[in-house]
Design a protein that fits this description.
Blueprint: H1 3-20, H2 25-31, H3 72-97, H4 104-109, H5 116-133, H6 145-155, H7 158-171, E1 176-183, E2 186-193, E3 208-214, H8 221-224, H9 228-235, H10 241-247
Antiparallel strand pairs: 1-2, 1-3
Helix pairs in contact: 1-2, 3-5
The structure holds manganese (III) ion.
């Protein structure tokens, strides 16, 4: 391909990314491949871009809504800096690598085929979008109805479930997540390192996520410092059990 063809192709790729991702139009335009990049002149290595663009869900409540359990400053930094960066980085990496995936679920299910940058940032994007939704203000601290019944059946009692989930959150060394998942009709508790997600082909814990807790220090350090145990103990007050119920089969 000569330079003119290459420029034309690059432009089409950039426009394609913009059309595909209206929610992230500004991010996409920043991530458009540089047309003046001499290293991309060889068509065999030229990135083809990625039609898939991931986006941040709007935070379903104000930054301060989960006070005093999760402070407003932590929420704001977590959402606008950490989560936003995962979204920007995954879109950048997918475009650079020419990742072709039908949708986010397809991407996660095949994420082991792509780079560590795609894996980490796709996980960071999905996990936080999920996390914001399974929390909310006005929590009662404990579930009712079908969620309570399922936890009683799966773990003996809500307290035993809480104990096992807390244990998973506390024993995850370094950064990661604690999860409640549904697998083959049964509930299971586990944890994942870094930004791995139970929907990933490469995850050591697999299943359909029902509840998640971010135990990266950025999720709690401003308010709780090194006391992950206090963060985990207080977090039950902001769990949105109605959302957990919606996700339960
Ligand atoms: Mn986080």
């Amino acid at each position: 391909m000569d330079r003119k063809q290459f420029l034309s192709r690059s432009l089409k790729v950039s426009l394609g990314a913009l059309v595909a991702g209206p929610a992230l139009a500004s991010a996409a335009s920043c991530n458009a491949p540089a047309v003046n990049d001499g290293e991309r002149d060889d068509p065999s290595t030229a990135p083809t871009g990625s039609a898939l663009q991931l986006a941040q869900v709007p935070l379903p409540y104000a930054y301060g809504a989960l006070e005093p359990y999760i402070d407003a400053q932590t929420m704001e930094i977590h959402y606008t800096k950490h989560h936003a960066a995962y979204v920007k980085n995954v879109n950048e990496a997918m475009a650079a690598e020419g990742v072709q995936a039908q949708d986010e679920a397809d991407l996660l299910a095949r994420v082991g085929s792509f780079s560590a940058k795609v894996r980490n940032n796709a996980g960071g994007t999905w996990n936080h979008n999920f996390f914001w939704q399974v929390m909310g203000p006005g929590g009662k601290g404990a579930p009712e109805g079908k969620v309570l019944d399922a936890l009683n059946a799966g773990f003996g009692s809500f307290d035993k479930f809480k104990e096992a989930f807390t244990d998973a959150a506390m024993k995850r060394f370094g950064s990661g997540w604690a999860w409640l998942v549904e697998r083959n009709g049964e509930l299971a508790i586990g944890s994942t390192p870094n930004q791995d997600c139970p929907l990933m082909d490469v995850s050591e814990l697999k299943g359909k996520p029902l509840l998640a807790l971010d135990v990266w220090e950025h999720a709690y350090y401003l308010k709780y410092q090194n006391k992950r145990n206090e963060y985990v103990a207080n977090w039950w007050q902001v769990v949105n059990w109605d959302e957990v119920a919606k996700r339960m089969a």
